[in-house]
Amino acid sequence: MAMNYRFVGVLLFGLCSAGGAHAAGPQITVTLLGTGSPAPVMNRFGPSTLVEAGGQRFVFDAGRGALQRLRQAGVRWQDVDGVFLTHLHSDHLVGFPDLWLTGWFQGPQRDRPLRVWGPPGTQRMLGLLRRAFAVEIQARIADGAKAEGAVLIAHEIREGQVYAHDGVRISAFAVDHPPLRYAFGYRVDYGGRSVVLSGDTRHSENLVRHATGVDLLIHEVASPETFARAGLSAERSRPVLAHHVTPQVAGEVFRRTHPRLAVYSHIVQPSATEADLLPATRTIYDGPVVLGEDLMVIVVGDQVQVHAAQAAPALDAAPGQAPPRQAP
User: What is the pTM of this model?
Assistant: First the structure.
């Protein structure tokens, strides 16, 4: 049986402006499509985040199940304006062919090219994907799918501003995720609001510089306790932990950057609980921090509002019939 989601509970962070909680103003809406890591579990799908601002929609990373989560969030694939990749690890990419191809021909068909921003190597990867799925693409076009919807436009990025349109600015900054040479975090700015996504990284001074004073900081985290509970040896867990941040290290990042709200995503291992992560964070940082979950929605405006997600069993809708969500 499929799972639909409804939002329950609203947590508020930050101070209202003079207009109060209902004051009109620019907003950035962030939906955590997937908060997991490589482990194939059902409660935390692969890393992926939807960011909506200024009538535009972007997906950051495309881990396992990204298309299903996007549909559960009520966002149609043809309304997504582009995809940003933080780095080229498989757990951030395996959902991309599904987003690209199934989203192209299912339901209301996508009729425009898909722009993809990512580190060096992105263009080659996308070219090879088109070759790998050449038979599929030709068959779908023969059946009436619009050829434009299968076109991929690659933008290989370096540090700095990588996108600007109608007041939305997206900047990339290098982070530290060995042994990869290229790994990026992203900052989204719109109407005086700001969101930073860490990507995968161990402690990064460059991230601290770009995230200082941000409204919302979404940061990865790794819990040593979860490796021990899973029975993994120190030899197996040591290199993984060396490439990510523990809750204590993340707490130091939050203490130095002072976000209005910090949110954990890309949870390693995905079995980590609040008890594994938040008390350890609190030894360093006493500001607002939330453990992210799939389909959690965070609205960054005069206040930062967190809408938690609760699963409820329901029959699935017909393809393409999810009600489209209005972009902020």
Answer: 0.89
| pLDDT given at position 242 | 81
Q: Report the alpha-carbon distance of residue 30 to residue 58 in Å, rounded.
A: 10
Q: What is the dihedral of CA 82, 265, 207, 58, to 10 degrees?
A: 10
What are the residue ranges spanned by the domains of the chain? 3-16+27-41+51-313
- pLDDT value at position 9? 57
Average pLDDT of adjacent 10-residue blocks, the chain of 328 residues: 43 52 76 94 96 98 96 94 97 97 91 97 98 97 96 97 98 95 97 97 97 98 87 78 91 98 95 94 96 97 88 41 60
Query: Strand 48-53 and strand 28-34: pairing?
Result: antiparallel
Backbone conformation region of residue 84, classed left if phi is above 0, alpha if psi is from -120 to 50, else beta: beta
> φ and ψ at 320, to 5 degrees?
80, 5
Three-state DSSP class for residue 226: helix
Which pLDDT score is estimated for 313?
38
CA distance 267 to 250: 12
Catalytic residue among 91, 189, 276, 294: 91
First to last CA, the chain: 32
In three-state secondary structure terms, 307 is strand
Place of tokens 């360093």: 284
Can 111 be counted among the known catalytic residues? no
pLDDT the model gives residue 151: 97
Q: Is 3-16+27-41+51-313 CATH 3.60.15.10?
A: yes
Q: DSSP labels for 79-145?
A: G--EEE-S---GGGTTTHHIIIIIHHHSSS---SPEEEEESTTHHHHHHHHHHHTHHHHHHHHHTT-
If you ran DSSP here, which 8-state letter would residue 41 be given?
-
